[in-house]
User: Fold these one by one.
Assistant:
Number 1:
Amino acid sequence: MKLFSTNNPNNIVDLKEAVLNAFPVDKGLYMPVKIPRLPKSFYESIQERSFNENAFIVCQALMGDYIPMPELESILLKAFDFPSPIVQLDDHLSCLELFHGPSMAFKDFGARFMAALMAYFLRNEDQKTTILVATSGDTGGAVAAGFYETEGIEVIILYPKGKVSDLQEKQLTTWGKNIRAVEIDGVFDDCQNLVKTAFLDKDLHNKYQFSSANSINIARLIPQSFYYHDAYKQLQDQGDLCFAVPSGNFGNLCAGLIAKKMGLPIHSFIAATNKNKIVPDYLKTGEFVPKDSMQTISNAMDVGNPSNFTRIMSLYGSTWNDVKQDVRGFHSTDQETLAAIAEIKEKYAYIADPHGAIGYLACKEAFQKEKRHYVFLETAHPGKFQDVVEEAINEPITLPTRLADFLDQTKSAYSSNKDYVSFKSLLMDL
Ligand SMILES: *Cc1c(COP(=O)(O)O)cnc(C)c1O
């Protein structure tokens, strides 16, 4: 499988290189050279196959015989041992629950697949690889869970101090063994910038053999296309589907667009954001203007310069009119999000998390304009945002044991300022 850099179509690498060394030197992002189309018969018979069997076919179309069949099967088997159920709320509204993995957020799909794929690529290497990753909340927890005790792979997670929930912090800082966390006195974008700079730093690279686990890694993106297929399978009799995707770095949406490009017969997408509405603004005006990120109650989407935007541009040849055919924009405020959580509970007896709730509002608005079946992605378990959800519905919710267990553990993290010099000296001394 060949991939090119979005900043230079002549910079071509194979899948192993793109997965283990996710940042091209030209600072673009890797994209498949060819996005193959699957035959109609695949979609017509999609019901007959399991999640993993369909994922296998999608992977093989993308990767060819790059990974031998039995190995690919076992990577998928290792990665996906949890479901992605559709909960149908009424005749024209469903929610796709993506929080049944180990960290209870959708990022488990990408992290587990990437961990299994990397372990496969590194199976014969002597030198350890270090995953360096910035998180705005959920990425780090999923990556930690995905890589915990993976032989030959260390993980260093950067997170913005005081900007993740208590539970999210515990999901980053209580693992030990091959997982370490660094709290950065700054915002998520500072963490992301430190990671980007560290990757291009020869001293650090020699010491650590860095690899990335952010949503920029193509190994995170590919598996995120699988659950769109699985959602389609579950809702095949509902007519044209439109997916509302709560978005931050836009990996999730980009994966959906790739699935559509491969032939998945779905109608369109809604890019649903909080007030960090860089992409909805782009869809409205044609201008992409990154800004500093602002803090909200849907903090996994507090991103001011969405990294996967460049991939979406490359999918559509940077043509605004073509993007607008497939993607509509939507954004909402914290007040609207809180009210939505209450409304979903009242109308459907369903408890949504703040990210999913923005997806819900996007569906509701779109349905007024155009009748079809809408699906919002529930990207995290509501228990991960317990305070916000309890405030919204004005009653306590019970945490699943998988989450409650984290709260009993003791935090262990390094700290650093957001300037690169301090960060580098910490990493050189670790
Ligand atoms: C990461 C995350 C998002 C945003 O996903 P992107 O792929 O970065 O757009 C939305 N909701 C939750 C709960 C997340 O953890």
Note: The longest helix spans residues 354-369.
Number 2:
Amino acid sequence: MARINDNYLKLSAGYLFPEIGRRVRSFQQAHPEARIIRLGIGDVVLPLPASICDAMSAAVDELRTEAGFRGYGPEQGYDFLRSAIAEHDFASRGVAVDVDEIFVSDGSKCDSGNVQELFACDARVAIPDPVYPVYLDTNVMAGRSGSAGGDGRYAGIVYLPCTAQSGFLPSPPRERVDLVYLCFPNNPTGAVARRDDLARWVAYAHEYDAVLLFDAAYEAFITESDIPHSIYELDGARDVALEFRSYSKTAGFTGTRCAYMVVPRAVTGVATDGSRVDLHRLWTRRHTTKFNGVSYPVQRAAAASYSPQGQIEVRANIDYYMRNAALIRQSLATLGLEVHGGINAPYVWVRTPEGLGSWEFFDALLTRAHVVGTPGAGFGSCGEGYFRLSAFGRRENVEEALERIRRAFG
Ligand SMILES: *Cc1c(COP(=O)(O)O)cnc(C)c1O
């Protein structure tokens, strides 16, 4: 008898994006003439930059030849990419990350979902609310929670409410936890943490011997100058934090797949016998056992994003999206809506008007403007009363969506 992992049965049935899909399909069936504009999903729309595609093609041409063919590469990634990462993403900001502390992977979803395997089943986990659902669901699957209550919250998880009063920043809990997930710039709220905000977390981790899991998937969208791009810009973070980075939103790799995780040698956990074990050793074991590397052309493509031409093209795409974000912010603010985010992140977090709930506003926007966004409640109970609009759209669609919203809600 193949008994299953019962923890999977605890996962809430009503997944966010399938429910959105269902409502959009049924609206479209009833109104086949409606041209629906989607500003809901966190996926890029602009094509891959030319210099990145050129590097990918050149790598494919190498593989075509006897001399250039490559089979399995190093599981942790090729040195050309890891060195480029250490130099451009860290040394350039005054942060020392060793090449062998970088683990190239096929995505931050996998990394941020897999990392929990290193920790005990009874580790106490703190997770912001609202949140990118992967952190929570993977801990539920691993058995680190009880069942979900009526409010959708799982027993045993320490939720960190992110509300308007605190600028949507989570505060360190008063109790002891072992693992803390943080994501800045934030999906879904678009909030960013300043140096002082992160310093409180680093201090908490030192005081309680906790590990911070820092998701910086959107760091390239930071436009203000005084905001840390990496947790390692904070003193003491190298002892307590792992960091996730992804080429998905930064360089348009959502379909191409490349990311990496930084595991500094100094970060440790405690074994049952009380001994300290460095997580670098465990992650190396895990990564080399369960992963066989990102394909050579994709790693070449990722490395090309750091070339001078690659940087120009990547920046142009990010600027394009951030211009969308600015348009969304301005236009909704003009309508008298309360808007957050969208300045250092490609997401605008809108307070739903007229006292509507997140899903009520979703339906109103769909039926009155034929625009799809994401109900904040889908990211956690503190997201109720909010709505996420994504800046990942074509300019003409964003402009038309905003014009329709003006007509429907103005
Ligand atoms: C999009 C996103 C990622 C990136 O995931 P990939 O698997 O690298 O595509 C990571 N974290 C957050 C919060 C995201 O929104």
Note: The pocket of pyridoxal-5'-phosphate is lined by residues 42, 107-109, 132, 183, 187, 215, 217, 246, 248-249, 254, 259 (CB under 6 Å).
